Amino acid sequence: MRSTTKNPLLKVVILGDGGVGKSCLMNRFVSNQFDEHSFHTIGVEFLNKDLDIEGQTYTLQIWDTAGQERFKTLRTPFYRGSDICMLTYAIDDKMSFKNLEMWRKEFAYYADLKESNQIPFIVVGNKSDVSSEAREVSQLEMETWCNENSITSCIETSAKSASNVEEAFKMAVQHWLRLESRADINETHVNDTVDLSKKIGDSNRMSCCVGGGAAGDDDTNN
Ligand SMILES: Nc1nc2c(ncn2[C@@H]2O[C@H](COP(=O)(O)OP(=O)(O)OP(=O)(O)O)[C@@H](O)[C@H]2O)c(=O)[nH]1
């Protein structure tokens, strides 16, 4: 995290296969617009957006990356220094869901993560507006994969209908805050030898949200 003159600045990277809707998610969140004919991203693009959480304003610097394999060398240099990673798939594209593992590994390698839980990973299943016939990944599959991979935040969104998009970014920042507070407590433990072996807060709780409901704020979707 860096600090602008006013607000804490968080670098958020959106990853996932080409065509899952990364650019549309960013544009929906930042400008509340949706482009039915969005072009493939080449390399990376970023936009800033302020987000208020519990009385504090955070400036999110959102990096939209190119999902196509041929742009790998253009996107990977931008992973370092990230505070949050959003792993995105489209619920009507099974292969994009299967590729989440590849995306996580690519990010961890190029961001040079020392531990897998060093920063929050958020799983985002986009295009939740598609018909049930078109759906190829169930909510249960998403939650199961997250459980198996120790990812505690997942959400289904639609950039098209604006469902859960702001909630996804809120969920990401809330997850980041939980990790930060845990890091602070651990630091206290190291410095002051305070016994904090008891369970800390809810940092390991699953926080999932699907469909059109609100997410994250009250953790009622666990
Ligand atoms: N139905 C539906 N279509 C969407 C949604 N989000 C994006 N799309 C469509 O999916 C296509 C790809 O969207 P993009 O945002 O360009 O996808 P991307 O992941 O950024 O793709 P790359 O730049 O190639 O990595 C476009 O035709 C969008 O209109 C959504 O929530 N629902």
From TrEMBL:
Its cofactor is Mg(2+). The keyword Membrane applies. It holds the Pfam family Ras. SMART domains: RAB, RAN, RAS, RHO. SUPFAM superfamilies: P-loop containing nucleoside triphosphate hydrolases. Belongs to the small GTPase superfamily. Rab family. This is small monomeric GTPase. It comes from Ceutorhynchus assimilis.
